[in-house]
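Risk register update: the risk of archive-format incompatibility is retired. Evidence:
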Amino acid sequence: MILTRLTVAKEAAKLAGSYLLSIPRTDRSFSSKGKSDVVTIYDKESERIIIDHIHSKLPSDDFLGEEEGLISHGGTGRWIIDPIDGTSNFVHAIPSYTISIGYEIEEGKPIIGVVYNPSLDELFWAAEGHGAFCNGSPIQCSKVAIPKNSLSVCPPPQRNPEDFETYLLLYRYICNHTEEIREFGSAALHLCYLASGRIEGMIELHVGYYDIAAGLVILKEAGGSSSSLDGSKHPQQSIIATNGILHEWYKKAVDATIGSVLF
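Archived output:
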């Protein structure tokens, strides 16, 4: 049944992606939910497209969507949906927003992940025990083992400006000890780039579970590792994610710079 659900999720992501690509850039108006947190009518419609498709194929499954919240049908598992991860990118026609669809039976432990970047037509997916893929080709994390050769993602806490000075301690350390830092504006995409060997490390001080649920499965199946900043194994509100080889180094980077401040 896991592969059936994976197929349905891939179909739903493609349907939502086609819808988002059909929206002219000039029509992408938005409203604000808070500091650096925008929402559009297209987030809501994308989520509705995803839920409607999955529900039509798997009518007893539950849903937890960023826009609509919990929808219960009495199922034993639920879908975790971010209909547009990187809404600001979508609004400004920057081609690094994604659709993120995860599935879990046990809360906080997703077993299916689908992430779609419609602008580049890159569909990443994984199911527990079945490997990770991008557009049908197997993917795996990089084998980089030296921090100075690693490419990192370390986005600023723009929705939590009170943590900015703390963040700068970590940013300076990562800049000084790794090759370079990048930021693509979508946590789901960051995890997929880790899984496909394009980057080696990712640290985010504040992240939503909707943003990372699908990507965590893809990363794990590609050989990577993840944890929260406080060391717990299943990240939901903060995350350290790596190619696996460098995970302890990135954890030590957090401990050496901001660990005493945050914890």
